[in-house]
Structures are given as C-alpha cells and as structure tokens.
C-alpha cells in the first residue's frame, strides 16, 4: 500500500501549502492525480456507508479483472473569516481524520479482496473535481450514493451526478444499501442499453467486461412512437410492427458489433421493447447485478453532459449503475 501525501494547510489559510521549497507553487488536483496508477480502479472514499459499499464493489470487481485499486480521499480547503483564532482550528484532527479514513478503507479492501494491490492518495480539491481528474488515468471510477428515491436526484448532484456527467471513463455508482455479498464477480448478469448511439457502443463493451468471464449480458433497446406509411404503429405482430422491430434489431446489432466474439463464455440476450427507454431498462434490470448505460442516447442534446435516461437510472435503478461517457481526449 502506498500513501501519497501532501503537507497540511497553514492554519487560517484556504489554500494548500507549497509542494516543495519556499518558492514552489501549490499542487493542483491535476498535478496530484499523477500519483494515480494508469489503468487502475479508482474508488472515492470518505468513511461513509455509501463509500464503503462502493469500495467493496470496486475491490471485488478489480480483483476479478486482475486490476489494482486506488483509493482517493479528497482534501477540501475552506475559506475562513480573518478573525478566526488559529488555536481553535482542529487542523491536526482534520489531517488525522483523513489518514484514518484511508487506513480503514485499505483494511476493508483487503478483507473483501485479499491480496489486491492498493494505492491511495489525498489530493486537494472537491470530491467530484479530483475524481474527474483521476478519470484520465483510471480504467473506471466507483462512487457511492445514498438510497434510491425521487429525492435522491438532488442529493446525487453533489458528487455522483457531477462525476458521472464529466468523467472521461466509465463511472459505477453504488447505493449504500447494496447487498454486495450477493454478487459473484466474474459471472454477473449485466443489462446494457444499446440504442446505437456512440456512447451505447462503448457501454456494450464495458458490460461485457463486467460480465466476463462467464456471466450474462442482456442488451435492451426500446421504442415508443413510430409512424410507417403515415400510420402510427400500434398493432402487435402486424407487418408495420415487425418492420419497426426489425429496424431496431438492426440498430442494436450494429451497436453490439463483434464484441461478443471477444467473450466466448458470456451469454448474450437481446430485447426490443415497446416502452419508454427508462421503463424498459428498469424492467430488464430488476434482477440484474449491474445496469450499464451511455451518458447520452440517440435523443440527447449535444450540449448536455448526461441524458435524462442516465439520470433516471442513477436515481431509480435497484442495482448498481454504470455510466459510460465520451472518450478521453
């Protein structure tokens, strides 16, 4: 285990101290993220039950893939009133608290995935900020979130939603009540939205990665309102209905491509449902171990970082959700 540390802030200061020497500039989050090993699984930790659930999932998934884990605990700086008495600030307690979080997180990771390679760091910046910076080097990120409800959408925006919206690698979001012991990594049932968008094509690859070596992937696409020859299609098994379904099946096959050939022991199932996309995915993922979606589907606006379907999955799905976004630049 390696712990890359930076010095504590001076009492009364809202910026980190110089990295080295009197004239050195403070490290930015991007500079400190250089400590993140290339191709590792990065897990955001803060000592909360949600973060512990994310760590358990991430450690087991990393072990099943033979990847190292990097634990990232953000150190936020706060602006303080000029009249604050320095001796009243618990700086040492704050520093010790961060070290305790990382120590306990390392112990948890070793318990759930014995022998796994672990590194850790405490870069300066907000949690979402440093996680997004780490996404340039990570295979994928894992973060925790509280509960599942309509109200969660507002709470989610603080870290999970911001990270999923801006990360340049897949982001897996784990609820704190996730029963991790029920999941067998390496033989999971993974549901993936495959609507033919560029993000969904990358989502398919990630879904197979998570199901490998011997799991099952269910690829889902959905349609709701289609018009053929000027007539709205509503009659199941009619020629028009079959024509619509055939078109969506072709689009799904294009999104899946040759990916299954690289995973010969993963079973592939496909579904073309007449339903809203959100309804179709939630129904298919009811008993799944993981739901994978692209950050934006075919109907997404170019300016949006995260589509409405992806946001709905993060707040409503009963299983962990992975959001697969744009490629690194």
Structural features, described:
This protein is α/β, with parallel strands linked by helices. The chain has 2 domains: 2-181, Rossmann fold (3-Layer(aba) Sandwich), CATH 3.40.50; 186-324, Rossmann fold, CATH 3.40.50. Helix content is 34%, strand content 18%. It has helices spanning 29-32, 49-65, 91-112, 127-134, 152-156, 160-166, 198-211, 239-256, 277-284, 308-316; strands at 2-4, 41-44, 69-72, 118-121, 140-145, 171-175, 189-193, 216-223, 227-228, 231-232, 267-274, 290-294, 321-324. Strand 9 (227-228) and strand 10 form a beta hairpin. Helix 2 packs across helix 3 and helix 4 (127-134) runs parallel beside helix 6. The longest helix has 22 residues, at 91-112. The chain is elongated. The two termini are 30 Å apart.
Describe the SSE topology.
Elements lengths: L1 E3 L24 H4 L8 E4 L4 H17 L3 E4 L18 H22 L5 E4 L5 H8 L5 E6 L6 H5 L3 H7 L4 E5 L13 E5 L4 H14 L4 E8 L3 E2 L2 E2 L6 H18 L10 E8 L2 H8 L5 E5 L13 H9 L4 E4 L5
Parallel strand pairs: 1-4, 2-3, 2-5, 3-4, 5-6, 7-8, 7-12, 8-11, 12-13
Antiparallel strand pairs: 6-13, 9-10
Helix pairs in contact: 2-3, 4-6, 9-10
In short:
Belongs to the universal stress protein A family. The chain is of the alpha/beta class. The chain folds into 2 domains: 2-181, HUPs (Rossmann fold, 3-Layer(aba) Sandwich), CATH 3.40.50; 186-324, Rossmann fold (3-Layer(aba) Sandwich), CATH 3.40.50.
Instruction: Give the SSE order as H and E letters.
Output: EHEHEHEHEHHEEHEEEHEHEHE
Strand content: 15-25%
Low-confidence stretches: 1-26, 147-157, 297-305
* Class from helix and strand fractions: alpha/beta
The CATH class label of the largest domain is Alpha Beta
Q: If helices are DSSP runs of H or I spanning 4 or more residues, what is the number of helices?
A: 10
The domain count comes to 2
Extended strand count: 13
Spatial arrangement of strands, main beta sheet: 1-4-3-2-5-6-13-12-7-8-11
Shape: elongated
CATH superfamily of the largest domain: HUPs
C-alpha-based Rg, rounded: 22 Å
> How would you name the oligomeric state of the polypeptide chains in this document?
single chain
Q: How many angstroms does the end-to-end distance come to?
A: 30 Å
CATH topology of the largest domain: Rossmann fold
Architecture per CATH nomenclature, i.e. the level-2 architecture of the largest domain? 3-Layer(aba) Sandwich
**What can be said about the biggest beta sheet?**
11 strands, mixed
Helix content: 25-40%
> How confident is the prediction overall: mean pLDDT?
81
